[in-house]
Amino acid sequence: MRDLIFYADECRRELDRLGIPYSKNITFKVNTRAKMRLGVCKKTGNSFVIEISSSLLDERTPLKEGLKNTLHHELLHTCRGCMKHTGRWKIYADRVNAAYGYCIKRAAEKDEGIIPGELMKKPRYRVVCPGCGTVYERFKRSKLIDHPEQYRCGKCKTFLARSDFSD
Length: 167
What we know:
- It contains 4 helices and 5 strands; from the N terminus they run αβββααββα.
- By secondary structure, the protein is of the alpha+beta class.
């Protein structure tokens, strides 16, 4: 298991070399429950909490594309005016990408292969669009799962139909 603080400090030194003014008041936490996100930055008052998915700390996950990329992404949110993925945040992300060869972007897709399949949590519920075959997966039971006929597909606008799911 990788040491979160060691790599967070390494990423902060990389930002220091580029002169990017991130917050110095940050607490790092490991999130063992996150199913869909790799990281999150939360602001409370004048401080920040950055949570990183425990899957990124596993040695089987690529270091640069996984942990360090996500750490940089979240650290950039601590810069003044950078809580959204536009403007200054995008400029800083482009600078880090150019200098160090990262691929920091707004969001990572779950099928990009960053987290090895055996580490990914499997969704418990699934609804499939009868029109185009788009699959909607959920970890928790929801209105979509209980009453899919009340929802339309986001791609083809066909009404969804009940599908088999585990309980």
